[in-house]
């Protein structure tokens, strides 16, 4: 009973990790204590960066085709729409996916499970991790199966994708510092009508409690997400939809015809102190949880999985040493800490109490937000941040050099050239080199001799606008981030980079 990697937890994070590893030839065993994929969910948003990465396993079209594109966000005050901010205008030259994609987590999980089964891997359901030991050269875990019997499972590595109450995290003892919001969150999937049921995102600014209407695929289907902090928060377990629906009806003019699902929950803001301990790794909610503001949580867990997958595959195949795995924590923990801090500040500001906070929300915000979003730089900053395309690994161990505005560790910029998409080659999960302009003959020969794909793009003004330097080389990692940016364009730069890190292709 052995696998290269034992994955505990079959939510989106664990499923994506299993998919990427399986595609890279790694033998995985994925277990989950639930009997089936989720039938309800809180996570809705799939950000642009996730859609870009999903091209590697041909998942993007399925997500976009089955979900709902949100073109804009609307802010409401005193029962009227105060302002509207469009997404597509902001990001159309930054990514092929300049929108917010709504694709509920339950549908998302079913898609991932289906793709994993097509590759010959099934989730072992009704199976719980009881404990494990790291014996230096291997992990030995105890699993309890559907019939209550226990078995021993051996793996080279264990990945804790088992959520906020992670047993993997508790076993390695990394801690989970942070706090809990005093508000109780609620979610309700409803059929409704009214001016805010138009396929866009709507947020009410009238009160200190958060309230938003998220569109779902299908006529009149939306999800209400909100908070309560008064005496109702003290009886969260018995809270009913009737206790919170009146505000949505009055403030956002939602006429509710049918309620399909209603649930309440509390939200924490925490980041574990280590993402790696020996042969154990923590990903997704097991490593970081935060306010749902901005729709970042699920996407961040998926980013964890893709970051770790290619590194595990390289080490298991002998193409890199163990030090490569240390870069997982170095790259992901800083981002998680910044994300938790940012969402905490935004949520705390949006839900602040008092007369001054009310004035800021209901009088200043509707005026200031349209004013500042008239500036292209502001719109671009907001879109880059929320869509996660601004996420970079500058200054981390695998990042080196710069050429133009692009540094080692950056996401490769998308150049909107209609007849030669520079993202087309990113469907392959492997190292590759990009040159915009002309590649040196010795670089062409070196790449051919090392079985390293080389993509050369005729120089265009769009490349300069995206920040590229003509004839420079950009070495891309298997997760499509820039590992090395070198203006000289010589193969010796790649050789030095790989030798210093013990990486082969």
Strand order of the largest sheet: 6-5-12-13-14-11-15-18
The whole-angstrom Rg is 24 Å
N-to-C CA distance: 30 Å
- For the record, what CATH class of the largest domain applies? Alpha Beta
Question: Looking at CATH, which topology of the largest domain would you report?
Answer: FAD/NAD(P)-binding domain
Q: Which stretches are poorly predicted, pLDDT < 50 over at least 5 residues?
A: none
Structural class based on helices, strands and sheet pairing: alpha+beta
| Strand count | 24
Number of helices: 14
Please summarize the sheet with the most strands.
8 strands, mixed
Helix content: 25-40%
Protein name: FAD-dependent monooxygenase
Organism: Dyella lipolytica
Cofactor: FAD
Domain FAD-binding: 3-341
Describe it for me?
The protein has 505 residues and is α+β, with helices and mostly antiparallel strands. The chain has 3 domains: 2-66 and 103-176 and 272-342, 3-Layer(bba) Sandwich (FAD/NAD(P)-binding domain), CATH 3.50.50.60; 68-102 and 179-270 and 352-390, D-Amino Acid Oxidase, Chain A, domain 2 (2-Layer Sandwich), CATH 3.30.9.10; 400-501, Glutaredoxin, CATH 3.40.30. 32% of the residues lie in helices and 27% in strands. It has 14 helices and 24 strands. It has helices spanning 12-23, 48-54, 60-66, 88-91, 105-118, 167-172, 245-251, 297-316, 323-350, 355-372, 376-387, 441-449, 461-466, 491-501, and strands at residues 2-8, 28-31, 45-46, 68-70, 72-77, 80-86, 100-102, 128-134, 139-144, 150-160, 178-193, 201-204, 211-215, 221-228, 255-271, 276-277, 280-282, 288-289, 400-403, 406-407, 432-436, 454-457, 473-476, 482-486. The strands form 4 sheets. Strands 6-5-12-13-14-11-15-18 form an 8-stranded mixed beta sheet. Strands 1, 2, 8, 9, 10, 16 and 17 form a 7-stranded mixed beta sheet that branches. Strand 1 (2-8), helix 1 and strand 2 (28-31) form a beta-alpha-beta unit. Helix 1 (12-23) runs parallel beside helix 5 (105-118) and helix 8 packs antiparallel against helix 9. The mean pLDDT is 91. Keywords: FAD, Flavoprotein, Monooxygenase, Oxidoreductase. Its cofactor is FAD. Residues 3-341 form the FAD-binding domain. This is FAD-dependent monooxygenase. GO terms for molecular function: monooxygenase activity.
């Amino acid at each position: 009973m052995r696998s290269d990697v034992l994955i505990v937890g079959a939510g989106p994070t664990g499923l994506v990790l299993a998919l990427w590893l399986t595609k890279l030839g790694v033998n995985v065993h994925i277990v989950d204590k639930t009997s089936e994929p989720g039938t309800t969910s809180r996570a809705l948003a799939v950000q642009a960066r996730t859609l870009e990465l999903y091209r590697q396993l041909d998942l993007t079209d399925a997500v976009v085709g089955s979900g709902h594109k949100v073109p804009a966000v609307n802010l409401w005050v005193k029962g009227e729409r105060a302002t509207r901010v469009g997404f597509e205008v902001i990001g159309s030259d930054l990514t092929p996916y300049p929108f917010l994609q709504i694709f509920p987590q339950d549908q998302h999980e079913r898609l991932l499970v289906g793709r994993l089964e097509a590759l010959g891997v099934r989730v072992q359901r009704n199976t719980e991790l009881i404990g494990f030991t790291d014996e230096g050269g291997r992990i030995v875990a105890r699993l309890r199966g559907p019939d209550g019997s226990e078995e021993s499972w051996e793996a080279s590595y264990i990945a804790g994708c088992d959520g906020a109450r992670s047993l993997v995290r508790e076993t390695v003892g990394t801690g989970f510092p942070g706090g809990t919001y005093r508000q109780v969150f609620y979610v309700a999937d409803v059929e409704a009508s009214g001016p805010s049921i138009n396929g866009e995102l709507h947020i009410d600014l009238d009160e200190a409690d958060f309230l938003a209407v998220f569109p779902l695929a299908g006529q009149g289907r939306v999800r209400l997400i909100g908070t309560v902090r008064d005496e109702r928060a003290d009886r969260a377990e018995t809270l009913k939809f009737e206790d919170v629906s009146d505000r949505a009806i009055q403030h956002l003019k939602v006429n509710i015809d049918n309620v399909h699902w209603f649930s309440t929950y509390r939200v924490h803001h925490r980041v574990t102190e280590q993402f790696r301990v020996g042969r154990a790794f923590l990903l997704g909610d097991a490593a970081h949880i935060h306010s749902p503001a901005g729709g970042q949580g699920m996407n961040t867990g998926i980013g964890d999985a893709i970051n770790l997958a290619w590194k595990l595959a390289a080490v298991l195949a002998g193409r890199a040493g163990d030090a490569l795995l240390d870069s997982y924590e170095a790259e992901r923990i800083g981002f998680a800490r910044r994300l938790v801090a940012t969402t905490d500040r935004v949520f705390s500001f949006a839900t602040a109490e008092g007369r001054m906070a009310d004035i800021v929300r209901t009088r200043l915000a509707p005026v200031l937000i349209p004013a500042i979003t008239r500036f292209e730089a502001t719109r671009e900053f907001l879109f880059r941040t929320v869509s996660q395309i601004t996420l970079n690994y500058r200054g981390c161990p695998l990042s080196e050099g710069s050429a133009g505005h692009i540094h080692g560790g950056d996401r490769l910029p998308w150049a909107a050239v209609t007849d030669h998409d520079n993202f087309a080659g990113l469907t392959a999960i492997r190292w590759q080199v990009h040159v915009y302009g002309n590649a040196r003959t010795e670089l062409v020969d070196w790449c051919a001799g090392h079985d390293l794909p080389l993509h050369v793009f005729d120089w265009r003004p769009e490349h300069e606008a995206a920040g590229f330097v003509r004839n420079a080389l950009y070495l891309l990692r298997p997760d499509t981030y820039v590992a090395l940016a070198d203006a000289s364009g010589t193969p010796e730069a790649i050789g030095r980079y790989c030798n210093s890190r013990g990486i082969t292709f």
